[in-house]
Task: inverse folding
């Protein structure tokens, strides 16, 4: 689709420009009507081509059906892009746009701004934007039968576009040549934003129309996400929400967001959670942040690392095997002594995380102290006063 300039110039107060502006306002509705008819025809052709391509048609050439579908899809997008330029853009420029149209134009600018430096993301997000724009119109103006037919295309195409966007991010995260942490931090943010966007707009629609029986396995996790979908979230809530998003992604985007990338996303959340516990001054808030960190450690180890097949370091694999065997041993307590099960599991997670903190470069001195106090309370370590130290408050900790 040919790109056109989207720059809106300032108003000119000359008589000629006033007259031109007035005439444009009169002509715009006619232009919109023509575009509306054109889009409807292109949309109907698209739906028919999509249904033909997705039906079991043994007597037809599947490759030819796919080629036809791709052709009408491109023509459909062109008509939508033309509508944005010929109608919405001019209405915004002439001050006759609704709030919806102003917002649509703003999003269009946002998408097109990606073209120069992030072409792949631009390509996928522009398609997504145009289809979303038309879907809103279909829901408002069309009959139920057409909405249902269009939804089948909409969900299918959105699935492929979101997967492509996430795959593009995954390549960037996995790029070992990219040594700039700040750049990767921004990519992590975009991954979580995209996952939430998909779950809020597409997964919710799938669950509403009960299109996919395979979604039953993520109902409970989706319900968890919904608890974070309203109200203002603090740092702890945001980390928890992103943890839920990652959990859902392991079932929906295993290829476009592969394990190696999901692992880095978990490690990013762990880093944020540890810093939050370490930096929080108020005791009650720190305790809540700590509980969240423990849950995150469990998710990371049980939901992700337990499914990991290829390990870069044989030593790390053996260490995890020891951890996993200990975890399985502790889970036997769950039915008979739940309180002890929770206690022993927490001790295991703390000790495991302490080992990781000692191996890293970040200064987690305050968090390590907090961890050791927890272990002391649980009786997992004991303290020994060192009589050789001049400071009588010096405590030496020894593991039980």
Result:
């Amino acid at each position: 689709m040919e790109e056109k300039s989207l720059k809106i110039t300032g108003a000119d107060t000359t008589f000629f420009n006033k007259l031109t502006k007035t005439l444009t306002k009169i002509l715009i509705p006619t232009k919109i009507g023509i575009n509306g008819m054109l889009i409807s025809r292109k949309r109907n052709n698209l739906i028919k081509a999509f249904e033909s391509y997705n039906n079991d048609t043994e007597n037809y050439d599947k490759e030819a059906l796919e080629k036809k579908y791709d052709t009408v899809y491109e023509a459909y997008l062109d008509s939508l892009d033309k509508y944005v330029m010929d109608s919405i853009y001019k209405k915004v420029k002439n001050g006759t746009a609704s709030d919806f149209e102003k917002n649509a134009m703003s999003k269009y600018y946002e998408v097109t701004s990606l073209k120069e430096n992030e072409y792949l993301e631009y390509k996928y997000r522009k398609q997504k934007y145009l289809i979303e724009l038309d879907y809103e119109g279909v829901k408002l103006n069309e009959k139920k039968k057409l909405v249902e037919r269009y939804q089948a295309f909409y969900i299918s195409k959105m699935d492929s576009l979101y997967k492509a966007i996430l795959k593009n991010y995954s390549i960037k995260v996995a790029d070992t040549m990219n040594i700039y942490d700040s750049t990767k931090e921004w990519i992590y943010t975009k991954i979580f934003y995209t996952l939430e966007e998909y779950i809020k707009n597409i997964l919710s629609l799938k669950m509403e129309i009960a299109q996919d029986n395979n979604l039953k396995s993520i109902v409970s996790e989706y319900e968890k996400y919904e608890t974070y979908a309203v109200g203002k979230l603090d740092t702890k809530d945001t980390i928890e929400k992103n943890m839920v998003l990652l959990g859902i992604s392991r079932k929906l985007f295993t290829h476009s967001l592969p394990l190696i990338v999901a692992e880095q996303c978990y490690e990013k959340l762990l880093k944020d959670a540890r810093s939050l516990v370490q930096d929080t001054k108020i005791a009650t808030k720190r305790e809540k942040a700590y509980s969240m960190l423990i849950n995150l450690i469990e998710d990371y180890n049980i939901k992700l690392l337990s499914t990991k097949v290829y390990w870069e370091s044989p030593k790390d694999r053996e260490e995890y095997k020891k951890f996993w065997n200990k975890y399985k041993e502790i889970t036997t307590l769950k039915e008979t002594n739940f309180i002890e099960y929770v206690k022993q599991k927490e001790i295991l997670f703390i000790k495991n995380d302490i080992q990781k903190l000692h191996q890293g470069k970040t200064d987690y001195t305050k968090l390590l102290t907090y961890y050791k106090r927890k272990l002391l309370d649980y009786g997992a370590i004991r303290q020994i006063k060192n009589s050789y130290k001049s400071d009588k408050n010096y405590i030496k900790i020894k593991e039980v």
In short: DSSP finds 13 helices and two strands in the chain. The CA atoms of residues 17 and 209 lie 51 Å apart. The beta strands are 381-385, 395-399.
